[in-house]
Amino acid sequence: MDNDLPEYPFAQPAALEPPPQWSELRAGCPVASVRLASGDQALLLTRYADVRQVLSDPRFTRQLDADGAARVTAQESGGVFGAEQSSMTPTGEAHQRWRRLVGRWFTVKRMTAMEPRIAAMAERLISDFGPGPVDLVKAFAFPLPVWVICDMLGVPDSDRDRFAYWSDTMLSLTRYGQAEIDASQLEFGEYLWAHIEATRANPGDDLISDLVTNDELSTLELLGTAQGLLIAGHETTANMIGKMVAMLLADRSRWERVLGDRALVRTAVEEALRFDANPGFGMPRYITEDIEVSGVKLAAGTTVINSMAAANRDESAFEHADDMDLARRPNPHLAFGAGPHSCIGQALARTEMQVALTALLDRLPGLRLDGPAEELPRREGLIVGGLERVMVRW
């Protein structure tokens, strides 16, 4: 192991500021060797074109259980990038079949139909705010997407605190020990297994019922689907809602601009996704064939980390990339990845973020951060980036 390699993920100056290494590497070392939390070595890509190239190549997947693949986390299980999760994740043609089955529940048309119900829930959550200051993450950004994904899957959102804990253990880089992760994942698996079996006996009008009734996925694939959607369906979006509001309030002229022109809600959401300086780990890929990226040969057997967030600050792809332009068009950011493994729930995430922002603008136009943006506490030790709290007043 080369102890002189930089440790990845990089430290940030503050929760809303990007690591200086992003721009340094894009300029001088776009294919950089880094050391992961496991101690293993990987290559980090930071340029837009390179990240898009690798993510769009169907030959390279998230199957990181291959011999010689770098371990992402400090724990042997590897969490969402580990061998157990990989065994429940379809690949190749099976993955495309899975996307067709599950993707019909995440179409733009379906999300548009869901929007009034999501808006009603957002209004209800805001109505339950106390006199302030309020933690926007706990009171709003977390419960909204949890309610939505639980409704879609047919599981009770009253169990959301358990889902959050189970998800965090699956997303741990360094936060949890292996024994705690193992116990948590056993509970998570047993919970979902019982739900799937109950759904077989009494199906309803939800995604899991649809998959069970059609009987096109194995039980193991069903379990992986339910687990993956519960994690991705609330963890990333909940984090992103909190970060989006914090970005807009950190320079309150941004909030005022969207407040005065609601046509900017859609583009402001996209720009928040692009501008996010606290996205977490990125997307790893295991290279199965030799390829060339930025003039560098990547040998088969190499693990590559694609930093979508660093790529989203690439001046060659985005004019004034380090400025938050709330009217930016076009905005081909990579926050949801690219290619055959791009985020299947991106239409849902966009809808939730747009609805959340609109509801806050309508109900709390005087919203402000309760303290300096520089002091916002980051979520540490997890694969996904986020803020532990966003205290606000109005």
Automatic annotation (TrEMBL):
InterPro entries: Cyt_P450, Cyt_P450_B, Cyt_P450_CS, Cyt_P450_sf. SUPFAM superfamilies: Cytochrome P450. It holds the Pfam family p450. Keywords: Heme, Iron, Metal-binding, Monooxygenase, Oxidoreductase. GO terms for biological process: antibiotic biosynthetic process. The keyword Oxidoreductase applies. The keyword Cell inner membrane does not apply. Gene3D superfamilies: Cytochrome P450. GO terms for molecular function: heme binding; iron ion binding; monooxygenase activity; oxidoreductase activity, acting on paired donors, with incorporation or reduction of molecular oxygen. PROSITE patterns: CYTOCHROME_P450 (PS00086). Belongs to the cytochrome P450 family. This is Cytochrome P450.
